[in-house]
């Protein structure tokens, strides 16, 4: 039975990449050593590293005046690093509360003494829509933090909020490389790798040059300027995760890049949303214009039926569709590596479930 893994992260990876890792594992490029065993300062790894960075620059069209930095510590550590590095003038940031990960980002900023103003929240609507930005007071905030894709609640920004002269910082963890955004519109972007870029242990930060190097004596492992200077090799980087990301980036290039991924993600999520919108049993609670292309949330309204859906789906090879505990119901994560057929199978399963249920 083919298994389709709808996990929100760590998540399904391209089958070709898994196969490549398998082939490479005993002896990388006939070196007699696996990638796990070579020095991060070796020529073999240097090549992997440079190529991964360049491929990311090409795919995302990252302008030259932006740094691409590789960190450990997950995106959660960036909720600390971003305010430490970037909230250096007003020591105050603005936040649009679109759900759990936005709230977490605000909480961590506060822990390092930065004031956080929540300008709008969609909590009252159970996060089934995005908050909106009515007005952003000038010369008040170091930046506005948004979560471009809300992994748990299933919403995503297509149109970015207009921040005028205030910098925009985006947590792009769950639609990084899956949807086209213009990097120039952001002061900084952060994203964990374990959804659309391979395996856990690597976090990407893309940050504009002129915003960094303003705060002396930051903890080294959180210092954007230091990481830029040391080309993300201040200490031992997550070698295997960078290698895996490199393979995913090459795969993305072979598939046609980010625009092609967005196109496919629209098709995949469209197939599922269309079914849900016409179903009498299932419902997609998120309003149409704010729906995520990568995390599709749906419910029956009855937790017992939801539970049956989740377990029967798993028996059919459609695994990890249980919704996050904060939202309940179901969630299908349709990252780049999820093939269209996976979603067709899921929709067929849901159709059958509905038919047999009535
Ligand atoms: N932001 C978003 C949007 C996420 O989905 C996640 C993880 N699911 C995080 C941040 C936290 O990432 P990490 O676990 O890598 O710290």
From TrEMBL:
Catalysis performed (reactions): O-phospho-L-serine + 2-oxoglutarate = 3-phosphooxypyruvate + L-glutamate; 4-(phosphooxy)-L-threonine + 2-oxoglutarate = (R)-3-hydroxy-2-oxo-4-phosphooxybutanoate + L-glutamate
Annotated Gene3D superfamilies: Aspartate Aminotransferase, domain 1 (3.90.1150.10), Type I PLP-dependent aspartate aminotransferase-like (Major domain) (3.40.640.10)
Main subcellular localisation: cytoplasm
Pathways per UniProt: Amino-acid biosynthesis; L-serine biosynthesis; L-serine from 3-phospho-D-glycerate: step 2/3
Positions of the Aminotransferase class V domain = 3-346
Q: Which residues carry this modification: N6-(pyridoxal phosphate)lysine?
A: 195
- The broad enzyme category this protein falls into is transferase
Q: Does the keyword Cytoplasm apply?
A: yes
Q: Which cofactor does it need?
A: pyridoxal 5'-phosphate
Which SUPFAM superfamilies does the UniProt record give? PLP-dependent transferases
Q: Entry's InterPro entries?
A: Aminotrans_V_dom (IPR000192), Aminotrans_V_PyrdxlP_BS (IPR020578), Pser_aminoTfrase (IPR022278), PyrdxlP-dep_Trfase (IPR015424), PyrdxlP-dep_Trfase_major (IPR015421), PyrdxlP-dep_Trfase_small (IPR015422)
One biological process term from GO is: L-serine biosynthetic process
**What's in the keyword line of the UniProt record?**
Amino-acid biosynthesis, Aminotransferase, Cytoplasm, Pyridoxal phosphate, Serine biosynthesis, Transferase
Q: What is the free-text note on the cofactor?
A: Binds 1 pyridoxal phosphate per subunit.
A single MF term (Gene Ontology): O-phospho-L-serine:2-oxoglutarate aminotransferase activity
EC id? 2.6.1.52
Instruction: Give me the Gene Ontology terms describing cellular component.
Output: cytoplasm
List of residues binding pyridoxal 5'-phosphate: 101, 151, 171, 194, 235-236
Q: Which NCBIfam families match?
A: PRK05355.1, serC_1
Family per UniProt?
Belongs to the class-V pyridoxal-phosphate-dependent aminotransferase family. SerC subfamily.
Q: How does it assemble?
A: Homodimer.
Q: What does this protein do?
A: Catalyzes the reversible conversion of 3-phosphohydroxypyruvate to phosphoserine and of 3-hydroxy-2-oxo-4-phosphonooxybutanoate to phosphohydroxythreonine.
Protein name, as recorded? Phosphoserine aminotransferase
Q: Which organism is it from?
A: Companilactobacillus zhachilii
């Amino acid at each position: 039975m083919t298994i389709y893994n709808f996990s929100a992260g760590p998540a399904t990876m391209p089958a070709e990449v898994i196969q490549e890792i398998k082939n490479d594992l005993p002896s990388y490029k006939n070196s007699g050593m696996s990638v796990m065993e070579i020095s991060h300062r070796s020529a073999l790894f240097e090549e992997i590293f440079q190529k991964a960075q360049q491929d990311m620059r090409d795919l995302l069209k990252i302008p030259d005046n932006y740094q691409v930095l590789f960190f450990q510590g997950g995106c959660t550590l960036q909720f600390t690093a971003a305010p430490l590095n970037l909230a250096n003038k007003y020591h105050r940031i603005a936040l649009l509360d679109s759900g759990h990960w936005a709230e977490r980002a605000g909480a961590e900023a506060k822990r390092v003494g930065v004031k956080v103003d929540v300008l709008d929240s969609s909590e009252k609507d159970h996060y089934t829509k995005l908050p909106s930005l009515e007005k952003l007071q000038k010369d008040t905030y170091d930046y506005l933090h948004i979560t471009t894709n809300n992994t748990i609640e299933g919403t995503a920004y297509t149109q970015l909020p207009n921040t005028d002269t205030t910098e925009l910082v985006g947590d792009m963890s769950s639609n990084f490389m899956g949807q086209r955004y213009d990097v120039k519109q952001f002061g900084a972007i952060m994203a964990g790798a374990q959804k659309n870029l391979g395996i856990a242990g690597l976090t990407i930060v893309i940050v504009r040059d002129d915003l960094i190097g303003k705060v002396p004596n930051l903890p080294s492992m959180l210092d954007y300027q230091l990481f830029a200077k040391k080309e993300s090799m201040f200490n031992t980087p997550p070698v295997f995760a960078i290698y895996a990301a490199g393979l995913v980036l090459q795969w993305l290039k072979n598939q046609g890049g980010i625009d092609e991924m967005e196109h496919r993600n629209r098709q995949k999520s469209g197939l599922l949303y269309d079914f849900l919108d016409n179903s009498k049993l299932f419902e997609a609670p998120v309003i149409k214009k704010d729906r995520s292309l990568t995390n599709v949330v749906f419910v029956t309204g009855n937790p017992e039926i939801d539970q049956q859906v989740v377990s029967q789906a798993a028996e059919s090879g459609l695994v990890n569709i249980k919704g996050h505990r904060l939202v309940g119901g179901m969630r299908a994560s349709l990252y780049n590596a999820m093939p269209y057929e996976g979603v067709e199978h899921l929709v067929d399963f849901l159709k059958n479930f509905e038919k047999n249920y009535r």
